[in-house]
Specification:
Elements lengths: L5 E3 L5 E4 L2 E7 L2 H4 L34 H4 L4 H13 L11 H11 L2 E7 L6 H9 L2 H10 E7 L3 H10 L6 E8 L3 E9 L4 H15 L9 H44 L13 H15 L8 E7 L5 E7 L4 H10 L8 E5 L4 E3 L16 E8 L1
Parallel strand pairs: 4-5, 8-12
Antiparallel strand pairs: 1-7, 2-3, 3-7, 4-6, 6-7, 8-9, 10-11, 10-12
Helix pairs in contact: 9-10
Amino acid sequence: MSCSWRENSQGSGEASSRGIVRRMVSLPRTVIGEFSRAVGQGMDMMGLGSRRRQPIPINYPAHPLEEHLVSAVPDEWAFLTAFEQQYGPSHPFFYTCRLTEALKIAEQDKKFLFLYLHSKEHPLTPSFCRETLCSELMVQFLDANFICWGGLAHRGEGSQMAATLQPGSFPFCALVAPAPGNSIAVLRQIEGPISPFELVEILQRTVEEQGPAFGLGSSKAEQEEKVRADRRLREEQDAAYLAALKIDKDKELRKSSQIRDIGRKPVESPKKHYQKPTETRAAIDSTDKVLAPPGKNPQTTQILIRFPNGEKREQSFSCSDEIRSVFRYIDSLGLSAIGPYRLVSSFPRKTYGADQIGMTLRDAGLYPRASLFLEAL
């Protein structure tokens, strides 16, 4: 999938925060309107942010819904109905309510709002929805960190927000925060196709840089604890790396010692000449078997992967494999509790994420052996 995307954060009423430019946008009057109730479910306005409303199961027909049938669905359900009918139920949790209600939930939950405008006519929309928006990585990351709201770019509030935000291209999503005076702060506009790794990185960076300005950052005590946890992780990584080096060095010393011992064996006396050769040859053969390196492809590299829970896995790769092969191997283990992560090596410390997945293991310095640590984002 092409990854030519654009981050847009320019507009009137700009304000800067730690180098990030954001713009203030007034919500259309039709969007501000009176809070509505989602179809089929009520909402306790006093406990708006304390629970999530689950969507009503929809039995879709075997063929795509006709346009006049989609238009009959209430606005709050129009996006979710059209989206699930085409891409299925595995997607981030989109709130089926008015945008103002979703902003209220985000404010009470102390989270940013992830806004997605769906343009089914755009040719890049299907690949973005299937490969990025509905990927397991994005589903877990968005559900854990944001309040998500989606709208159809040609209908209802989705159309109103498209006219207000004026996307240059689709797919289009934005990270916004409630602001005083029926306005929202647009922190990031992301336009065009993008991979899930890149989207996670952009959203994570925006939260880290903009969160404190909106009171969404961690407390000072939490930040200090995070620093201490990061320091402990680095110390453990460095200690594990040094221990691995010591083990390899001890093996080399034992191997050299065995070679020297064989060279110093005394010559047997003539009387035992016909009794000992077989035993001596067997001992030498046995030693040779210990010293002989295991038969393997010289282009193979061994990667030792350590997980946050202390578990270790070792896997062989070709030195011409890309770093994405290591990510695919980790994902194949089915460890769903890991969440978003990157790989880290020590001495010198290097990180491998979305920007490095196209590098070969040889070019990345991970050949013929390497030790990587999985670091959660």
